[in-house]
Amino acid sequence: MNENLRWQNRFVYNLGRTMQLYHQLNWGDQLTEINQEKIYEDSRIKLLSEDRKKFQLTNETGLMINRGDFKNLATFKIENSQNKYYVDYSQILYQMRDELSWSAPAWVDSIAINALISRLEYDTPDTTNDDDRDEWRFNTELALSWQPTPFYRVDAGMKVGMFHLIYLFNTRSSGNHWNRNLVLWSGFGWRNHAWEGSGRARIRSNYFDYDYDDLFLTLDQPRRSFVHRSLDLQHQLQYRFFTRWSLNLKTSMRWEDEGQLDWGAFVQQVNSDREQTELVLKLLYDFSGWRGWIGYLTHERVTQYSLSNRDPDIWKGEGPLLGIHYALGHRLFINGDARFISVKDQNRNYVLPKVSFTLVYR
């Protein structure tokens, strides 16, 4: 048996031609009863039934501004939820969010800024359960776009994310940590008659810092905080030499390292670094909703370690690939891809085949 009750209410008030205030309430109450029994060859025994209960109440207030080229949405949300099943718990989420977009300002074509800050309180009534915790999140993103001509475009942006987990009981406080993410990226695209190309660069740093690492070090335990950093470069070039025929070249490079982190001194001890390169060349043919291609792929990955007694890991693969793309309609597509990669992995040689078909609706 399943009972599901829902209620939604939305109030909207226009403060002017370009400004709107709203409040939305969502309420839900779900009860699921599960009957259980054991069945034998000549008998049937009923067991105790189990109930699953879930309750959720959300209140959200927002202010929307729409002045043509300038748009902004600011919201504040409180979400209460309760669950009674294997683990009974209740949680409260407080969230503030802002989304801003600005088109055609003086020095770029568009600016988009998103920001979110939230706090989650997780509580279990069971005094023997030490999973009670608070979670803090802060995410922000900035994206810029500039298109000086119809044939050239430049994009740039950044993302900052922070997450803090705090366990309320001492038995689990060793897991308290900060997770900080920083991403910087830029890209471009261009087109000139039969030629077109695009490129993208991304730098990412991920810092995972435990609150009580220093205490563990005094107890002769290893440092648990770590960092991972990466740099990605991608470039794609395409040349259409006939109406239906074209050549596509795609190159990708990635450098990354990881190791232990001392956040207080902001010092990293690198344990390993990895370098990857990939080159893909395709010959494409287009005809009446069909696109097919054949090509060749090479990929190499080299991982080196700081330990002197550990040799580098080297992985190399290359081989042919082919595929099709067909539009069954405006929103329905079928894709097929096949590749047969000859791999040299340390002292092992083998073939890695991969064949896939997917149906996409969008």
Reconstruct the topology from this structure.
Elements: E1 2-14, E2 19-39, E3 44-67, E4 70-84, E5 89-103, E6 110-123, E7 133-149, E8 152-167, E9 177-192, E10 195-210, H1 213-218, E11 226-240, E12 245-262, E13 267-287, E14 290-305, E15 313-327, E16 332-345, E17 348-361
Antiparallel strand pairs: 1-2, 2-3, 3-4, 4-5, 5-6, 6-7, 7-8, 8-9, 9-10, 10-11, 11-12, 12-13, 13-14, 14-15, 15-16, 16-17
Structural class: mainly beta
Please state the average pLDDT score: 92
Distance between the termini: 35 Å
- Uncertain spans, ≥5 residues at pLDDT below 50? none
Q: Over the alpha carbons, how many angstroms does the gyration radius reach?
A: 28 Å
Number of strands: 17
Order of helices and strands: EEEEEEEEEEHEEEEEEE
Count of helical regions: 1
What share of the residues does DSSP label as strand, in percent? over 45%
In helices, the fraction of residues equals under 10%
Biggest sheet features: 17 strands, antiparallel
Large-scale geometry: globular
